[in-house]
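does this look right to u?? alpha-L-arabinofuranose version
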Amino acid sequence: MGAGCFLFSRTPPFAAASPTAADSRIEVLLGEPLGTISPNIYGHFAENLSGVIYDGIWVGENSKVPNLNGIRKELVEEMRKIKAPVLRYPGGCFADSYDWRDGIGPADKRPRRTNFWAQEESASSPANHHYDPNQFGTNEFIRFCKLIGSQPYLAANVRSLPAEAFYQWVEYCNSPAGSTTLADTRASAGYADPFGVRFWGVGNESWGCGGNFTAQEYAVEFRRYTAWVPRYGQELSFIASGPSDEGWDWTRGFLEEIVRKGPRELHSIYGLALHYYAWNLSRGRTKDWNEGKGDALKFDLLDWYELMRQGDVMESLINGHWQVMGEFDKDHSVKLVVDEWGPWYRPGSEATPGDLLEQTPTLRDAVFSGMTLDTFNRHPEKVAMANCAQLINCLNSLYLAHEDKFCVTPVGHVFAMYAAHQGGQALPTIFSAPSVNYDRDGKPASFWGLKGSASLRDKELVLTVVNPHVSEARETEVGIRGGSLKSGTATTLTHSDIHAHNSFADRDLVSPKTRALDFKGRTLIYSFPPASVSKLALTLG
Ligand code: AHR
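got this back:
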């Protein structure tokens, strides 16, 4: 591959239509919107796990690292740029071991507790990764959300706390100033006004770390935990612990048990949480969780395409679970909330050695992430929220940080590019491009050549496109059915090396480049570079 965004074009990257050598075509259908893209599809997830909270988000008020009352300032500044709509906390598996009452009140009186992940941590990792000092709790989380303009999404403990602790957490967060003892406790910490938390997860992965329930057992718990929760005039949206991957039986078993008490019970569920990690790069050799994983940085072309294939599974999971949900919820009042997604590699690429589940995202993960966000955009009626796992120092991180070092990963750049879709009307878009053909362990394999999504707000059209081919640009004619183009810009994220990634030493190696388009109402021809994520921001005439 060449070094730059436009190097691969046989014609200039964009040009007025003339007889061209375009091998691909994208057609956006203006007249048939699919629905509004929920901004919350662009959500995030921060678990109290290794370096995510302590070191990633929370550096402490007395730190030499620039901070806003203990919260890493550079992170806040970066997150403001991406219009982060919602942030899930404190887990993940951690959530079902967490007592929110440990994390409120005077910081010097808060207890230290064994972190859910302590046993997985290496002996050399910092003490606060093993033993939660509870310096970052509900108040600090809400303050962080306010700083970055996000709605909070709190995940409650169903495995090891009673339902009473759940509704009291709601009371602590949402009861009006002066109304309850917990509101007074909140006020004495400096937060007289209620936090107004709308999104509440009722457990996490309740089929596993969240209690090892059967789907039916969990449904009974869900009904009990949500049977009486005080509102205080605040709409509450409960998110049920849902399936992982192709866990159709969980979706079916849960909803079957929920409606056993009558179809009205569905109204207590805002969303069903789906988790999907792309981890098995073994090309069918094993299903072993450790053996199947690949390396974040050392990979070949086959590994690249294998990750794309794994990522592409997301669409069939959305369609498949939606279909099963429809068996019980004919009106589809319950939406999908994909509150954990991303690639998961074996240990070894940590920017901070010793950080558990930390990996270094490369250009490959940026392409994967663009593809996944496009998939969500194409299903606005089904996906109400999604949360990339995780925000910082963990799995598909948007940011890496350690002490005073910080960088935005290629995944972070994709979120910045795609923010323009938030709240837009999703438009059907037809992609025709030669497929990627390659040899997969002696057998011919193919993968789609171009895919993406489009959305419209007033006269502003946003078209995002992924070219997964590692070495071929796609010369593409972009047509708008039902409208014409006036002006626009193109932003592309790519690099000559598919392994390229940002680091503390080289923070901007992979960063998007924006150019103005000048096509004066005629058909747009754009060359999508190999291994790239692109955004065309177009103004209609
Ligand atoms: O994101 C890491 C872990 O993956 C979460 O804690 C858990 O929910 C999932 O299995």
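The pocket of alpha-L-arabinofuranose is lined by residues 47, 91-93, 204-205, 340, 389-390, 395 (CB under 6 Å). idk if thats expected tbh
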